[in-house]
């Protein structure tokens, strides 16, 4: 009888300990980026790791070897099958991901995106760390200012325009193409003497592809090409290398999104004229933080604070803070510290 009672007590303790261990198991939050191993997403991984440590969750960053929709969709499929608690994605193609996002939510998995504020039907929330409209307008204003500084502004008219081109990560990356659309509409409205010479090119996730594209554009358009805007973080770097190869630092304006430590040397030489970005570390942290709040049952509402980033704005399913970093010169880039 005593043995039976002892066995029963041991069994109950084992069940209790297992239940406590299960209850204490940290949330698993996966961040799936467009492409692994490039500086932008390496920096984002730092924010994910910081959030994991501070919030007590199992958060990590993964991504495909190429910036293509298919392998990213497969990665998310695999995470859904594994049953993680939350999936945060920087989409290559938000529409291609919609079916697997829906499948994840049906299984109770929280789905968050970044750089995709326009395809929100299949997700819980999108998290942005900039004002995207202003971000799209900024390079156009800078191009005009640089033309003015060079004493060239007065010679351009709608009949004799200053030509520019834009490089995006791909033709399906939502935010890159929104910025490009915003820039075009803004230029048409405010600066009709600016003209896009050719449709945006999907090269800005590769230095070499961007370099090759800009070399071709220089050959094709010659003196008509006055500026290049790179919306992906490697676009301005590749453009700068092409401009430097041709000795055209004083003839072609290069602006766009870039990691400070990567772009600073090109700002020093004048191969890049100006850059902007948000800190991808902030974005990584913010996605994991919001995922944890949702999993904890917290209400996501206007004014809620993300540590280090301030109060959020909420519009539909889009959560945003405005943390645009401007780099008019190498000193400003170096001061950002990453």
From TrEMBL:
Its main location: other. One of its GO terms (molecular function) is carbohydrate binding. Signal peptide: none annotated. It is found in: Cell envelope. GO terms for cellular component: outer membrane-bounded periplasmic space. Residues 29-298 form the Periplasmic binding protein domain. It comes from the Bacteria. Belongs to the bacterial solute-binding protein 2 family. This is Autoinducer 2 ABC transporter substrate-binding protein. It comes from Candidatus Caldatribacterium californiense.
